[in-house]
Each structure stands twice: as C-alpha cells, then as structure tokens.
Amino acid sequence: MKKILGLTVIAFLVSIVIPLNAKALDAEIFASSGTSMTETTEGGKTFSLKNTAGSSSKKVPLYIGANVTDGSLTELNAHVELENSNFTFSGERSDYRLTSGWSGTVTKSATGNGIDIKLTSTSGLNTRSIVATINLIVSDNAPSTDTCKITLGTTEAPVTPKCQVVDGTYYDANGNEVSEEAYNAACTTAENPQTGSFLPYTLIIIGLALAGWLYYVTKKNNKIYQV
Q1: Beta bridge partners of 102
Q2: CB 162 within 8 A of CB 24
Q3: What is the pLDDT of residue 8?
Q4: Half-sphere exposure of 5 (CA within 13 A, CB side)
Q5: Cα–Cα distance, 80 to 66 (Å, whole number)
Q6: Which of 105, 122, 120, 104 is nearest to 177 (CA)?
Q7: Rounded distance, CA 106 to CA 5, Å?
Q8: Which of 93, 96, 138, 213 could hold 106 in an S-S bridge, CB 3.0 to 4.6 Å?
Q9: Alpha-carbon distances of 96 from 91, 129, 145, rounded to whole Å
Q10: pTM attached to this predicted model
Q11: From the CB of residue 76, how many other CB atoms can be counted at a distance below 10 Å?
Q12: What residues does 79 pair with on adjacent strands?
C-alpha cells in the first residue's frame, strides 16, 4: 500500500514538471535605423530612415533584428515596406549581410516597394540583437534631406514547435529536433496535452498538498496496524 501511494505521488508530480519545460517562444522582430537599436519598429511603430548616402555609394543601411525575451528564435520571417520611391532594394546578394550563424534570403517583393526576409539560425537567438543589414539604394535625384518611412509588415515571431511532430520531424519540450524515442519519452506522458504552454503553478501546489496528505494517511495507517 505504501509503495502504491508513493508511486502515485511521483507519477503525478512528474506529469506536472515535464510540461513546464515546454516554454513558448516570446520574441518580436523589428527594423532599426542603426545598430544601437534606439529607433525601431517595435511595438508597431514606424520611423523615417534618413538619407545618409554619400556621393560615392548612394546606399543607406537598414537593420533587421529581434528581441527575444523567452525561448530561442531559430526562424525569422518579415516584410519591410519602403514608403518612399527614392529608396529601393536591389534584391542582389551583395546588398545584404547576415550576422554569423544566420542563413536565408532577403528578396525584393514581387509587388510594391518592399523587402521579404526569410532567415534561419542553427544556434538560435535568445537576446535583443541585429541579425541582418540591408543596403537601400537612394536615387540620384533624391535630396539630402529625403527620408524613407519604414514599416514592418509583421512583428509576430514564428513559434518554435514544442512537443510536436512537424513534417515527420520530432521536437522535444525545448524545441530541439530529436528522435522518435526521445520525443515519446519527453512528450507523450498521460498528463501532457502537448500544447507547449505553461501549466498553472496551482497544480504544483495541489500536487504537493496531495503528497503531504498521502504521507499523513500512510503514517496514520501504519500506527493503526502497529497497535
């Protein structure tokens, strides 16, 4: 009886603790006027990129970054709209540079005056940082005081799969690619709904209270048997 109660308590607590590792990604992708990231599109804002192009280059840098406050960002998708015809993106590989560890494409939008960004990272980003630099070309007739309004089409970061099977690939509670066996061990417990969300801390309290109650009942029964 004592062993059964003990195993019941352990099974209950494990079913609570395992899903707690499945944290959802909390991140925001943004465009920035500089590497200091003081002027960005965070929070749905826009900003005007100044014409800092010299007489020789005729190019102005635009920076793309992400602010990760929870989890690890491994995929970055965004659309930047350039609301000024004097600033354009060539679409050439030579006109954008990616931070080490990132790969993907930065292309000119098929319609309008915009930029489509699709990047991935093998190591992941877990802080606030710049991941790409895009050089915009300023037309020759643009005045030195000209500006370009920068709007980010999406500020919603993609969610890393947690305890999910996507296109035949298994992801554990931390979003890492694992084998089917490791996936089953981490994600297919009876109490794990595989939603990738936090369980309320009240469940932990309930679990501890239940453990204490079972312990009390066991001790009391042992005393009765001894008598």
Answers
A1: 121
A2: yes
A3: 54
A4: 13
A5: 14
A6: 122
A7: 59
A8: 96
A9: 8, 16, 24
A10: 0.62
A11: 22
A12: 116
Structure tokens at 88: 């354009």
| Residue 186 CB coordination number (10 Å) | 22
Structure tokens at 224: 């009765």
Q: How many residues does the chain have?
A: 227
Token reading at 79? 């659309």
Rg of the chain taking only CA atoms, in angstroms: 26
3-state secondary structure of 189: coil
What is the tens place of the pLDDT at every residue in 41-71?
999 999 999 999 876 678 999 999 999 999 9
- Only one residue has tokens 């102005």, namely 60
Q: Which two tokens stand for residue 87?
A: 């600033």
Calculate the dihedral angle through the C-alpha atoms of 198, 202, 206, 209, rounding to the nearest 10 degrees. Answer: 120
Give tens-digit pLDDT for 182-213. Answer: 888 888 765 554 444 444 555 667 777 777 77
